[in-house]
Amino acid sequence: MKPNIVKTRLKNNLPVLGVLSNTTDPTVAELCGFSGLDFYMIDGEHSPVTTAQVQDIVRACETSGITPLARARSNDAKLIGQYLDAGVQGIMMPGVRTVAELEALVKAVKYPPLGSRGVAPVRAADYLLGDMNQGEFVQFSNEQTLVLPQIEDREAINNLDDLLAVEGVDGFVIGPRDLAMSMGYYDGPGHDEVKRTIGSVVDRIRKAGLIVGTTAATGDQAKALVDRGVLFCLNSFAGLLKSATSEFMKGRQ
């Protein structure tokens, strides 16, 4: 396992910008890295990506120097373990609502004594053929992996104070679209009530001393969020392609 550059930046109160991608093609991850993004989030929820493909995507990330993260499709310890064993350096979990769900996520991501992840001679551990022995790798992995539950539901907001107290969590990523849906706004998060709710959640997470993340469609939006203290900003790969294409196509107008 390599040092987690994204986690190091966040611990030093520095912003990170990256992409959530649902493609199975490792070349896309490689291109994102060489383009200068901080992290590549494999979308295991809204995509056909299989655990067998994750390993090659992670290799592409390592080649181009971008930190590989993943959104797992479910809070399944064995599934999460497969992502991490392949070399993913952090898990973003959608739809976390309760303390029990969040504690289960931490246990799945972390080795003992922080969690219950099983150890094996896997790729993330250099197959236990590298310089670290098993004990050193376990400690290093626990220090380097990110745990980032998503706030996407009114129930999570109702339970937020309790969620903020769970040990082993690095921060929370707000999902505006699904949060708006749970609030009854099916056309998107542009409503004042949704905006006020998100603003309150941001303040509460920051007050707890944890990382805040959410989506940003443009560089200007990302800058405004960073100025607000939201240090983890992500766009979709499709969104970045669309904005770049729209800018480029101005040339034929």
UniProtKB/TrEMBL annotation:
Domain of life: Bacteria
Residue ranges occupied by any HpcH/HpaI aldolase/citrate lyase domain in the UniProt entry: 21-236
GO molecular function, one term: aldehyde-lyase activity
Listed name of the protein: Host specificity protein
Family matches, as Pfam families: HpcH_HpaI
Keywords, in A-Z order: Lyase, Metal-binding
Similarity field: Belongs to the HpcH/HpaI aldolase family.
Source organism (scientific name): Spirosoma sordidisoli
Any Gene Ontology CC annotation: cytoplasm
